[in-house]
Amino acid sequence: QVQLVESGGGLVQAGGSLRLSCTASGSIFNINDMGWYRQGPGPQRELVATITSGGWKNYADSVKGRFIISRDNAKNTVYLQMNSLKPEDTAVYSCYLQIQRTVLGNKYDYWGQGTQVTVSS
Predict the structure, then answer these.
(1) How far apart are CA 9 and CA 113, in angstroms?
(2) At residue 75, what are phi and psi to the nearest 5 degrees?
(3) Residue 117: count of CB within 10 angstroms of its CB
(4) What is the tally of helices (H) and strands (E) in the chain?
């Protein structure tokens, strides 16, 4: 069984910073892609950032230059450093990790529980 635990959300003023983390535990052989989505007041979920096992990073245009995604493979953890936060960044942020549980097993996406980020103007 695999569990993901997120932390780091909260309330911050515009221009401030927050750091989210997401740690996986349990039966894990390998973690491939990691990333963050967010769900704001609108109907669409937005892919915020992804990082591959090789360290290749990709960002949504809305967060480029402000957010930084990173990973610590030894800790099975992905981070999202969010700087220069804007009110429009307010959302529930959820992590996902593409996990392979055994050497011959398939890869599956596992999701965190979501953490609220609120940016006040």
Answers:
(1) 12
(2) -105, 5
(3) 21
(4) 0, 11
Question: In the Cβ-directed half-sphere of 53, how many Cα atoms lie within 13 Å?
Answer: 9
Q: 84's torsion region: left (phi>0), alpha (psi -120 to 50) or beta?
A: left
SS3 108: strand
Task: Please tell me the distance from the alpha carbon of residue 10 to that of residue 17, in angstroms, as a whole number.
Answer: 10
The helix or strand, by DSSP H or E, that contains position 49, with its residue range, turns out to be strand 45-51
- More confident site: 43 or 66: 66
CB 18 within 8 A of CB 117: yes
Burial class (CB in 10 A: 0-12, 13-18, 19+), 68: middle
* Lookup result for tokens 């230059």: 65
- pLDDT for 6-19, tens place per residue? 999 999 999 999 99
DSSP assignment of 29-55 equals SEEEEEEEEEE-SSS-EEEEEEE-TT-
Q: What pLDDT is attached to residue 53?
A: 94
Q: Which two tokens stand for residue 70?
A: 């990173």
